[in-house]
Design goal:
Chain B: Keywords: Cell membrane, Membrane, Transmembrane, Transmembrane helix, Transport. Chain B: Belongs to the binding-protein-dependent transport system permease family. Chain B: InterPro entries: ABC_transporter_permease (IPR051393), MetI-like (IPR000515), MetI-like_sf (IPR035906). Chain B: It is found in: Cell membrane. The complex is a heterodimer of chains A (306) and B (331). With 306 residues, chain A is mainly alpha-helical. Chain A is 68% helix and 0% strand. In chain A, helix 9 crosses helix 11. Chain A is globular, with a radius of gyration of 23 Å. The N terminus of chain A is likely disordered. Chain B has 331 residues and is mainly α. Chain B folds into two domains: 67 residues, no CATH class; 243 residues, MetI-like (MetI-like fold, Orthogonal Bundle). Chain B has 15 helices and two strands. Chain B is globular, with a radius of gyration of 27 Å. The chains are: A mainly alpha (306), B mainly alpha (331).
Chain lengths: 306, 331
């Protein structure tokens, strides 16, 4: 149906010769300097505004979380942090079950990211380097599955999880997202370029079977891409909202689900709400500060180009 | 299939490399057979987990949704399904809330997607310059992407607050009276779209940037030799050069827009969230699905809304295909 409209060329040969595997891998994930003109002052100003717009709401979350309810509810709004940051964070941790939510989200996002990376690398390797009947059709199918938003199946999914006794349980959130089509496609793109065919063939001549080749040749080459895919999947799983909101309740929530509880109360404590929002964002923010370069280059490497 | 292949693999490992097999001829034969099984079977075993999980948790539910939509099912008694044929669909098409939610989904989709992709294009162009601190700008543009719907919607709800929100305060500088964003239809839809735009512009910009960097430099050289201005180069080299990426982002944003749920839910703050405002002024199809299923306990009707969303998606893509075919026919 819609598969053909996708700009992905499944027929392109995947054998791009790359010199040495590990180095090629690193090169693929490195940010290339723009090869166009140098930026003028106007470009810096515009990008500065853009960075400000991107970061300001989070800065303001921190400001609001560090004052108290009366100060936040005044106009003009506060622009500088107040003294109550840690007491508000502690209150959000207790009152909104943010502690439990953080642990739950860590488990959910961690398991989903691990399994997505494992299965995506396996399938990506097969699609990029192994010859088998129906390869192109299956790859087109993988891409076609991106067209089916998982939200459409929530009603039967909810019934299924109730039948299995998994409603309100974390596995109900984990199972449906154990794999990702984007991940498979990403690993296929990466391995297609980073893993030389000669390496695979040489291992075959030496008598290694497919699983052995995967373990000792593919995994080392794929490692940088796997790390990136892990982080991107982690971000998505951490932030996923609709299905967890449907299937979990407030006694056992993930972070985004717990956050809705904060704002739905009748007495709205704005600085408490903001403290919760800040708490729920901090782990990902920390990850972005440490691994920002890798995440940026990973998203760019996985992009459809052309 | 997966298990048999794994056994085969394990077996072959024990047998060792065929050429050096100690049992002589028969061992070599067995090794060759296992080798062939491995060659033929392993690829399918490697791609199987993806398809198994997808079939069980995405494809089967999608099909089963259609079946449920032909039944009367209540949340409290999920096991008793009563066949009602197309009654749910007839009710849905007579229901003004459905048409309202459909219109809202489309208008919010347009308000959030069009500016988002245009700004992403401009941003990618800026990021593509050779410059200092380029990594900082790229990471900064991704910060909203790291923020969950929950957190982002909470912050923006506060920024759009009627009495003390920062946005009304800023509008006050230019003499605009405070707006009640939530209570009015278009302001509410603009506010919700703002959350979507804020979260996704930087991400799309990076996708465009990656595609721009894959455009061969000689195309720009040729254009500048022909005397093309920078703007001409942008419209005649850059944009056509990243055409498939643009299509890809349009497809993804469209899917996202039809599923919109968290932003309006949280923007409505509590009881108003699920209905999309007191007058359903920003209720999307996603919210309607949830309201039918988990607030009115009518799972059959919820499934009907889900299937209507799917049909909407198909319609949009068919239209997109038709338009692109027409455009390619007329040069």
């Amino acid at each position: 149906m819609t598969v053909n409209s996708l700009p992905v060329r499944t027929d392109t040969p995947v054998r791009t010769p790359a010199p040495k595997a590990p180095r090629a891998g690193r090169r693929l994930l490195r940010i290339r300097a723009g090869r166009q003109h140098h930026a003028g002052p106007l470009a810096y100003v515009l990008l500065g505004i853009m960075a400000l717009v991107s970061i300001f709401p989070l800065y303001w979350t921190m400001v609001a979380a560090s004052t108290d309810n009366t100060r936040v509810s005044q106009s003009p709004p506060p622009f500088l942090p107040g003294p109550n940051l840690f007491s508000n964070l502690a209150r959000a941790w207790d009152e909104a079950a943010m502690g439990k939510a953080m642990v739950n989200s860590l488990i959910v996002a961690g398991v989903i990211a691990l399994s997505t990376v494992l299965f995506a690398t396996l399938a990506g390797f097969a699609f990029a380097k192994l010859r088998f009947k129906g390869r192109n059709i299956l790859l087109t199918l993988v891409i076609g599955t991106m067209m089916v938003p998982p939200q459409l199946g929530v009603v039967p999914l909810f019934m299924m999880m109730s039948d299995l006794g998994l409603a309100q349980q974390l596995p109900a959130v984990i199972f449906p997202t154990l794999v990702s089509a984007v991940g498979v496609f990403f690993m296929r793109q990466y391995l297609g370029e980073a893993l030389p065919d000669e390496l695979v063939e040489a291992a075959r001549v030496d008598g290694a079977h497919s699983l052995r080749i995967f373990w000792s040749i593919v995994l080392p080459v794929a490692r940088p891409a796997m790390a990136v895919l892990f982080m991107i999947t982690f971000v998505h799983a951490w932030n996923d909202f609709f299905w967890p909101f449907v299937v979990l309740d407030m006694t056992n929530p993930t972070v985004p689900v717990a956050l809705t509880q904060l704002s739905a109360g009748y007495v709205r404590d704005q600085s408490l709400i903001m403290a919760g929002a800040l708490l729920g964002t901090l782990p990902l923010l920390a990850m972005f500060i440490v691994f920002g370069r890798q995440i940026v280059s990973g998203i760019m490497a996985g992009a459809v180009k052309g | 299939m997966a298990t048999s292949t794994t056994n085969a693999l394990a077996g072959e490992e024990r047998a060792g490399p065929p050429a050096k097999s100690p049992d002589g001829k028969s061992g070599r034969k067995r090794g060759a057979l296992l080798h062939r099984i491995d060659l033929k079977g392993a690829p399918y075993a490697f791609v199987a987990p993806f398809f198994v999980v997808f079939a069980a948790f995405s494809f089967y539910p999608l099909i089963y949704t259609a079946w449920i939509s032909l039944h009367h099912v209540e949340l409290a008694t999920l096991d008793s399904m009563q066949w009602v044929a197309f009654d749910n669909y007839v009710d849905l098409f007579k229901d003004s809330r459905f048409w309202n939610a459909l219109r809202n989904t489309i208008t919010i989709g347009v308000i959030s997607t069009v500016p988002q992709l245009l700004m992403a294009l401009g941003m990618a162009h800026l990021l593509n310059y050779r410059m200092r601190a380029s990594l900082f700008f790229r990471v900064a543009s991704l910060v909203p992407y790291a923020t969950s719907v929950g957190a982002a919607a909470l912050v923006f709800t506060m920024l759009f607050e009627r009495d003390f929100g920062m946005i009304n305060w800023v509008l006050g500088w230019v003499g605009i009276d405070p707006l009640d964003w939530e209570a009015n239809k278009w302001p509410a839809q603009v506010a919700i779209s703002t959350i979507v735009i804020w979260r996704w512009t930087g991400y799309n910009a990076l996708l465009y940037l990656a595609a721009m960097q894959a455009i061969p430099a000689d195309r720009y050289e040729a254009a500048s030799i022909d005397g093309a201005s920078r703007w001409k180069q942008f419209t005649h080299v850059t944009v056509p050069g990243i055409r498939s990426t643009i299509v890809f982002t349009i497809v993804l944003s469209t899917i996202g827009a039809t599923q919109l749920f968290g932003e309006p839910l949280i923007f409505g703050q509590g009881p108003n969230g699920v209905t999309g405002g007191a007058d359903n002024q920003y209720q999307t199809l996603g919210l309607l699905l949830y309201e039918e299923g988990w607030k009115n306990y009518q799972m059959g009707r919820a499934a009907t809304v889900a299937w209507a969303m799917f049909l909407l998606l198909i319609l949009v893509f068919v239209a997109q295909r038709l338009i692109s075919r027409l455009r390619s026919r007329t040069p």
